[in-house]
Structures are given as C-alpha cells and as structure tokens.
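#struct-queue
[09:14] JT: dropping the first one here, sequence first, then the structure tokens:
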Amino acid sequence: MPTTLNEQQETIRKFRSIANFPTVIGAIDCTHIRVKKVNADGGQLYINRKGFSSINVQVVCDADLKIMDIVTRWRGSVHDSRIFRECRLKQRFEAGAFSGILLGDSGYPCTPYLFTPLLNPTTPQEERYNRSHIRTRNTVERCFGLWKQRFRCLLRGMFGDIETAKKTIVACAVLHNMAIDMREDVFSGERDSIEQYSSEPIVQRYIAPSIRGNIRRRQFIETHFQDNTHL
C-alpha cells in the first residue's frame, strides 16, 4: 500500500482519472483459486459456494492493476467480509494510516473507509455515485483477469499441498507487479480475452452497511456527486 502522502495522492489521482471518483486509494475484492480436494479433517471448509475446493484470496489493487495487498490464508467457504474484517489492512485503516478510501462490492459492509454501491439508488446523485463507483472498482476485476492470464495456474488451479499453493499465489502476485513495472504484456492476442476471467461466478450476499458507514457515504455523495461531471 502507498505509505507516504505523495504516494497516496498519486494513487488517488490515478483512480480519479477513471470516472472522477475522488479519494480512492484501492479497489478490493476476493477471487477463488482452485486447489485439489483436501481429505484431511476440515477439508470440507475449503469447498466454496460453487462446490469446488479453493483458497479465497483477498486483493487490493491500484489504478495500474498492480496488487498492493494480498491475503491468501483463508479457505474457500469463508465470506469476503470476514476476510477483510480480520485482516491487518482493516486495522491500519481504522488507525488512520491512509488518507483515502477503498471501493468494494456489496459483499462488504459499507464503512467510513470502505464504500460499497447503493442497493437501490433513487436520486440522480445516487445514480452518478453508483456509475462512478462501478467503473472505478472494476479495476480489481481487470486486475484478476490480467493476473490469471499471465499465470494460468491461477485459472487451472493448484494441485500441490495447500501451503505451497499459498506461497505460489503470493509469488505470482509479486511477478505480476514486476511485469507491470517492466511494461510486459500478456501473450499476443490474449488481452482481448481478459474480461472473460475477470468476473467471479460466485455471487456474494448483500451485506448491510454500518450506521457510521451509511452516514459517511451519504455525506460523500452530497459533497462530490451533486453535478453531472461523473459520466
């Protein structure tokens, strides 16, 4: 994650250039990486909602699709919101370590530092907020698509032991960031197919916002989405 004020401001600037959504420092989501069936005690906890064994991997990316934070220790049956609730990054946000906010989908609770879409927008301001939110948060879906295209083992699945799979996932994240820094593209002709891998087939249930998060989001919409510059 960006640490200095200058780094955070540059990250915020790049996110705002996507759809004019201010103060975003990261887009967050989880993706399921298939693993071989675990026969040991507790192996059933690796089975996700789609019925296959997986590790549920939490990622925060920036506007350049680089992975800034990754959590690989949770089994496939664990909900995205719990992974974030128990991660160190949440503690850092609550401690005021960052000047911006995260964008997540409705699988997360809305908090003062993690904004989610409105379930039923009723005003032009709310609709502008949702459109801008969706376009900006889509960076993490594109990140997953590019990451999995570069490293097909993330698409096919990991068939070694679980601890090796976790380390391999993190190694792929590091190499993905290095490839972006070096401006390495995926293989010719494959970039067009990235989007087909970017959307998770597992639908997250809607999580109600917290009271503080709801108030903060309402104030944010009233402050930043009154005009029609968010297209």
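[09:21] JT: and here's the second one, same format:
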Amino acid sequence: MTSRGNFKSSRNNFKYQNEAQDSKGTKPIREASSVVEVLILMIVHICKKVLFFDTSLKIAIYLGALFLLSLIADVLTFPKSYFSRSDNMFNQYFVKLGWFWTLFLTVPYVFLTSYTTCCGKRKLIFTAHLLRLFIATIFWYTWTTIFNMIETKYGRCNSNRYDDKVACLKNGHFWNGFDISGHCFILIYSSLVLIEEARAINGWERIKDYIREERYFRSLNDKSPSSNPLKNMNTDELDILKTSYEKFTPYVRAFLIGIALLQLLWDVMLVSTILYYHIMVEKFISGIIAILTWFVTYRVWYTIPNLFPNLPGQGIFKYNLEKTSSSSIPQRRRSLINNGKHFMGMPINKGQEDSEDTK
C-alpha cells in the first residue's frame, strides 16, 4: 500500500512539474493543411523544378541552340507556323513588351520576399534587393540602345535615295544592317533574371518552423544552444517577420507561379526567334551578351561581401543558403522543428499558437 501510494504521489508530482513548465509557454500545435493548400504546394514544387533546372546546363543549351539551330535555319527553310508570323499574339503583346512583363512579376515578388526577410527595413529592401532590378533595367536599356545604334549607323537602304532607316522603311524599302537580335537578348537575359530572383523561394516554407520554434522557446526563456537563424532577432523584428510571412506568403507563391509560366513562354519564343528571325551571328552575339551580363552581375558582383546589392533571399537572417544540420540542434528543439507532416520536402501543416488565440 505504501509503495503504491509513493508511486502515485511521484506520478502526481511529475505531472504537476510538467504542467508548471508548460504554463510558461504554450507549445505550438499544428493543424492539418487544407486540400487547396496542398495542391498549391504541389504547383509551387513543380514551378521550382522548372525554374531551378541546372543553370549551367540551361546556358549550354541556349548557346548550342543559338549556334547550331540558327546555322541550320540559315541554310534550310522551316515550315511556316503561327509563331513565324511577326504579328502573332505572343510576339506582339509579350515579347515586344518583354521587360515590362519581367518587372511586372519580379518587382512585387522581390518586394514581398525582401520585406519579409528584412523585417520591414525599407532602406535594406531597396539597396539590397530592388536595386538588382534597377541595375538589370539599365543593362537592358543600354544594350538594346547599342544594338539599334549599330544597325542604324552601319546599315544602308537598298535604294540610294534614302540614307535614313526610318525614311527607307517608311517608303517601302529594305534596310540592310547588322541587326543584333534584341529579341534573343531580352528572352535570354529576362529568363536568367527571372530564375535568379525566384531563388528567394528556396527554404521559404522553413521560415514558418523557425518562427514557431523561436517564439515558443522565448516564451520558456530557454537559454540552450540554438542554430535557429532567428535567435539574434529582437522581439519587434520577430513580430514583423511573423506578420509579414503569414500575410505575404500566398502572394509570394502566386507570383512564383507567374514567374515560372513567363519563363516557359520566353523559352518557347526563343525557339521561335531562332527558327524564323535574324541570322546566326546576330542571334549568337546577343545571346553571349545576355549571358555575360547575367554572369557579371549575379555570379560576380552580387556575391561580393559588404557590397550592395545582395543576392536574392539574403536578409537579416539566413534561411535558404544552407540547410540546418539537425545534429547541431538540441533534441527538444529538433523534435519541435520536425513535428508535423511534409510533402515534397515542404511542411504541409500550418502553425498555430493557442496562447494568442485565447487572448
């Protein structure tokens, strides 16, 4: 009797101690995601697979197509199609307005992702992230202007009566000039910019786990070692991060889907341009310039430490540069991060904090 009484008393004490500990902070509870969210995550996953295809291999394919396929197109005549018409809908309303559509999707996407990862610090948002798009716009405008100048200055009309390109074309004649393909340039350069800017989505879903973990252990005043990237953030920054992440994530996903669709369209239109327009040299040179411009900016300039702008996804904390090693996280924290279901490497449960719901 005494032994059972002591055992019962010890269990009661153990339960009381646990309840006292839990009262310091409410453990986050995940609820199952809706079918709609799971479908959206599936689409996002497919878009990431399309966008983040090996960039080096993609560039090799671009250069190979610009050289070999263009060379074949110079010798052979491909069958006419809807895309061979310069007045086709995709050429008129998308390619000719190519940079507009690129900025239309990337500017809000970059703003929303950088606002979240920079915790609303507007100066950092503009200097570290939106500045990339401004620089890209300057390069786009500069190169296309140079292409037009070369064609105009070093070309001639097939009629000796006209020395001006505009007058030559206006009177029904043909202007012979070295016409470096502005279409190839914009299609390749825009595609590479879209791919690079979209990389902010890598690791995006993990931010939710980091927020949940950090808020919970701060409520417990837990001082154990942590590899959580949010550990050095102050309370105001953490609150802004939580609010902006929950508010902007649906829009970030929507813009990512739009970016993936636009990038696919650019690839289709590039093939059309290679098959039906310009000569090989004009297309190959424009492709080389587009790739070099991308490489100098995103692979050299933006990787230099302490020099603006930063690479996509860099904010006041790191979430997409490297995966956190689970062995370096204490067991209690690791179990919290890994709690819940995942689909295609992304969590499919929403975080919920009972303490805030009950207030």
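[09:30] RK: nice, looked through the second one.
[09:31] RK: The longest strand covers residues 29-32.
[09:31] JT: good to know. The two ends are 45 Å apart (CA to CA).
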